[in-house]
Amino acid sequence: MKPLPTALVLISGCLLLSCTSKKEEAAQLVPEVNVVQVGQLNVPLYTEYVGQAYGQSDVEIKPRVEGWVQAIHFKEGSIVNKGQLLYTIQDDELRDKVQAAQADVAQADIMLAKAKSDLDRVRPLVEMNALSRRDLDAAQASYDAQKEAVNAAKAALNNAQTQLGYSRITAPISGSIGVSKVQTGDFVSRGIGQQAINTISAVGAMRVRFAITENDYINFSKKMNADKARNIDVQFILNDGTVFPETGKLDFANREIDPSTGSLLVQAVVENKTRLLKPGQYVKVRFKTEEIANAVMVPQEAINQMQNVYMAFLLDDSSKIKPRPVNAGRRVGSNWIINDGLKAGDKVALLGNALIKPGIVVKPILKPYSYDSTTVK
After folding, report:
1. What Cα–Cα distance (Å) separates residue 183 from each residue in 9, 73, 191, 323, 342?
2. pLDDT band per the 50, 70, 90 thresholds, residue 375
3. How does pLDDT run across 26-69, given as a tens digit for each residue?
4. Domain extent listing, the chain
5. Average pLDDT along the chain
């Protein structure tokens, strides 16, 4: 048998290489695409608001007399007890007023004793007709007037002593005291609108107040009554994103809608056993408002949204991409609730791959996906 010509061998080799190259190229044109299965589960829906924490009772400390602060008797940020001395205000003038009032009382007592002596002397003389009835009436009137003068002097003394007591400011309640707005040597005064020099917050349960819209109030009122609302567990999300370890309860809603904002003030209460919440702290308030049964869920990355059109890329049994318009409902966490267009178990492609086009065949890579993240975070 004669050997093949060299040219024929080269042509055959090129044809073989060409066929192999086309097969490899065809294989390379099938892109790998991440897909997930459409889930179905009962989805709790939560509502979030921004709230601010307040103490069980926050009592402002305001001076009731004028003077210079002589001493501060507490450590800022510490726990103080009811009746504990907090501030001492200079009381020299107040003590002088007490002494003057005491002198007025003593003088009034002396004058009362004299009026009593005059009355006792006049009465028997009138009975003996040695003095007229008019003299007795005058003596009696003088005595009665002097008794009232004594009462007035004692009232003035009591007021002076009360004012002197205001120079020693004590804690009205037990709780955590804040940073003092005044220091030793500062002058304080009293009056309407006077700024508080400190605040004490009762140690115990915390109040968290937040505002809801009028529409939310109407929707909640349709779904639940007051008793049901008070049994709702309320979660609090701290500034770093962590969930506060204790749940609270809704306490009350204000009697009126704020006409300037169209919102309703609502208060929740939490025991705050850990003492982690502080008055003035901002937190997110979250509670369950309803639950959707057997909701069809897909990740947010599986839906292409263009204005009001929502599109999913469905994979058929031959791994071919088929665009499917869907009716997307509420977005919960990182997922969409699909009202129509998909069913549980369908496989949809995750977006982000530029090779995803209608009608192409892909190599699906099924990604495990947990729909536990449907809780709002």
Report:
1. 104, 11, 19, 72, 69
2. very low
3. 455 778 888 999 999 898 888 899 999 998 889 999 999 999 99
4. 28-45+292-374, 48-56+203-289, 63-89+168-202, 91-166
5. 87
Residue 206: C-alpha distances to residues 34, 84, 268, 274, 276 (Å): 47, 23, 8, 11, 10
Rounded distance between C-alpha atoms, residue 130 and residue 320, angstroms: 135
Homologous superfamily, domain 91-166: Helix hairpin bin (1.10.287.470)
**What single letter denotes the amino acid at residue 173?**
I
State the residue for tokens 């005491």.
102
pLDDT of residue 10: 43
Is the pLDDT assigned to residue 174 strictly greater than 60?
yes
- Backbone φ and ψ for 248, nearest 5 degrees, come out as -115, -175
Per the CB < 8 A criterion, the answer to whether 326 and 22 are in contact is no
Place of tokens 């001076």: 63
> Which superfamily, per CATH, for 48-56+203-289?
Efflux pump adaptor protein, beta barrel domain (2.40.30.170)
Q: Determine whether 213 is exposed, middle or buried from the number of CB atoms within 10 Å of its CB (0-12, 13-18, 19+).
A: middle
pLDDT confidence of residue 372 = 66
pTM to 2 decimal places:
0.64
Q: What is the dihedral of CA 196, 200, 206, 211, to 10 degrees?
A: 0
For residue 256, the SS3 value is coil
